[in-house]
Design goal:
mainly alpha
């Protein structure tokens, strides 16, 4: 999906979700309403950044939108949140999104070593010990073996409709990208490694409206407290 199409679709989706949230506000708890309102506000901000093709800011806003949906406090695991989303996604919209995006942004992220955590861990070992000492018996660096296994696992999950494990693999890649961008590990609007930021934006732009919609239509579920309530 090109940037213009992505932007226009996201603008329409934000408007629709905003109207749905207003229409159903009386059916939602204050906590759930606040959570979705915050997430939607950052999603709308991302759509505005895409209008000027500012993908760095768009990615930041999209990640905050995602974080607003599940963040509570501390080191809460994300797996239960993902599993709940998948269980409530009776139309399999998340799977359809990942399937449709697999030939593009999903596959690109999975095949990109620069958003693979073990790649960077291996780079940090260089200087402390030779990378050759961290090689497996076949001569490949251990991170490369894990990287290849992860790519195969993702494809198997896709073909077998194992949605939660596939989504978790994708999120692992996005989390590394998140760390690069939000923790100063990348230059603003740099021409270096633009591909992963563009792929991250494409995927999050596609999947965030689905996540918000699922949560909006599952207001009777316990989505937990929010770390910073309105006071």
């Amino acid at each position: 999906m090109n940037t213009d199409t992505n932007r226009l679709l996201l603008v329409d989706q934000c408007q629709t979700l905003k109207q749905d949230l207003r229409a159903r506000r009386d059916d939602l708890t204050q906590v759930h309403s606040t959570r979705l309102h915050r997430s939607l506000s950052w999603l709308k901000a991302a759509s505005e950044q895409l209008q000027t093709n500012n993908i760095d800011q768009a990615f930041i806003n999209l990640w905050i939108s995602f974080s607003a949906c599940f963040y509570i406090e501390g080191d809460e695991p994300i797996a239960p949140f993902i599993e709940k989303l998948i269980a409530l996604d009776d139309q399999q919209r998340i799977y359809t999104c990942l399937w449709n995006e697999y030939s593009g942004s999903v596959k690109a992220l999975i095949k990109n070593p620069y958003v693979f955590a073990e790649f960077w861990q291996a780079q940090r070992l260089i200087g402390e010990e030779k990378e050759g000492s961290n090689n497996a018996g076949n001569g490949k660096p251990t991170w490369r073996i894990s990287f290849d296994q992860s790519s195969v696992e993702a494809l198997n999950c896709l073909s077998r409709k194992k949605i939660a494990p596939l989504f978790s693999i994708v999120l692992d890649r996005l989390y590394v990208l998140r760390n690069q961008v939000l923790q100063g590990g990348a230059t603003y609007q740099s021409q270096v490694n633009r591909e992963q930021v563009e792929d991250g934006v494409a995927l999050l732009s596609s999947i965030m409206p689905i996540i918000i919609s699922i949560m909006l239509n599952s207001s009777d579920e316990d989505w937990g407290d929010i770390a910073y309530p309105v006071i």
